[in-house]
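# nightly structure sweep
# worker-07 picked up a monomer target from the shared queue
# config: single-sequence mode, recycle default, output format = structure tokens
# input follows
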Amino acid sequence: MTAPSSRSPLPPSARGPLPLSTRGPLPPSTPCPFPLPPEDRDLSPYTGWTRAHWEAAADGLLGATVPYASPGHGLIALPGARPSSSGTRSDGLEGFARTFLLAALRVAGSEGHDPRNHLERFAAGLAAGSENPTTQTELTSDNPDSWPRIDAVRQAYVEAASLALGLRLTRPWLWDTLDDAVRARVVDWLLPALAPSPVDNNWWLFGLTVGGFLLDAGIENVRARAAVDRALTRIEDWYRGDGWYTDGDNRAFEHYNAWALHFYPVLHAHLGGDDALLATHGARLATHLADYTRLFDANGAPLPFGRSLTYRFAAAAAPWVGALTGHTPLTPGATRRLASGTLRHFLDRGAVDRRGLLTLGWYGPYPPMLQSYSGPASPYWASKGFVGLLLPAGHPVWTAREEPLPAETRDAGLPLGRTGLLVQSTVSDGLVRLHNHGSNSTLAAPDPYYARFAYSTRTGPTAPGAPADNHFALLVDGRPTTRGDAHPHGAGPGWAASTHTPRHADGTELPGVRVLSATAVHGRTELRAHLVTGAPPGTRVRLTGWATAPDGPTAQLHPVHGFDGPPADTPTGSTLIGPGTRTAVLEGTVTAPEGGLFLALASLTADPSPAPVHTLAAVHVAADAVRVTWHDGTGTEVPFPYHPDAARAGARPPAEGA
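# output follows
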């Protein structure tokens, strides 16, 4: 059966690129408070942006932080409603180190040209901050400049990496001009970062970054080399092939792959001229980017999945590094289109407040998405997204005409390596969705930014305390279970599956209960399948769909098998996209001693007047598989073990339950 089409009759190439401001809703926001150059739609037909826009954005972001520097410029204590768990002095160091990295990228990319004198104030800050490092965690009026010691405040270990990378990038114009006494003090402060990482995840690469700078400067070569080698050896344990690492001894596949696990080793190899190391890690980066660049919406939005999302346009860092080192599947024009689209996406949507400061949130402030380590200066790790400025103005990445993103060229439904993640995107609206059948949180569970079955570039997970979106739960004493760790159960073209053991709200598992889940996708359509075993007859279950805001995309959820009837529409509060979301909810009952099979069709689209999702697919349950025939006549088969419900489910015509 062919469904009514809501697509434009012209292909994207014939329609031409649309301005970013027309691609997806623009929530109420504050216009960017610093001046930007005029757009160039000939060179950049998708975004209008050029290298000059990046330089102006960097200068604007840096200039806005100047009023918050300490008397000697050693700390930058930005205003905010909440300090991080590491204390206000650590937050001040974070403000200094992360904005210094931005200044270093700005100046190094201009071959030392520094018309705004950014490095002058950071040179003063290096002298003041390193003079009397302290174990104090809070800022005091009698000691307003000193950095916290790395061996006393764990977060300082993180900030040492930004400091060291900035020094490495600007060595001819900054480090080599400092007094010997200042250099000695900075080195003494950095040296504890060469010790083994206090956290067994991407933090190992902070020691690598400090070691890389010291090796460049010919300081403590033996210790520095040991730190570099130790870090590279440790992350090797986490490489799972196909360009993907886990972030530690777990199954955390998310954006830290791009922002850290590829970013630091590849950049270190490039800056150090280590061709052998670059060959290995550069090839991995290129493979990763083939997947990663599919996670960007046509409107510029990266996918909000995982932690530390307040870093925002740091998401552009890895594509830039690929272009910098020549290890990328993207053309120069597509690289700039992706990066400029991402930076502009946030600056157009209120990520910067009236003072010119990045806020703790996604667009504007949004506390539910933050971690305990998030402080007022944390968003400035977005500075990594400016690494493209290291490419000279004459490089093709700046001079080539912008080209479209993968999400703008063809529909996709692809598993991402061995991660258990399934990406789904549609050309008609440029929207990207990710279905999670294999990645788990590195933090306390349940975490809304890891545990959902689906994420998209135009929705966000509902906040703790609100009904969970994109979730399948058993109802135990009236309370929904949470999702246990996801274990991949298989994947193929257009589908992925996983198993998990449901948990009570207190984190304890339901003994003997297992849920096998699968998602199959085609165009905008999703089949969501859940097979419950080990639960007694009469157990109620609940499936939720996408949480959408009033001005957001259209979400649909339709029961196919096992559910009671049409979905209920439930208010689900705010997400990082905006307030007032609503989510569709289906409920059903386990009826057989062996368990129950539950199937539904779902859709999320920004197309106008979309056809009902039940007209887009027919579902058939066999003894060993769930088979879907899509509206265009193609099909997908998802291996599913035999269940007694299979004989009763049979074929489901497209209009069933309409």
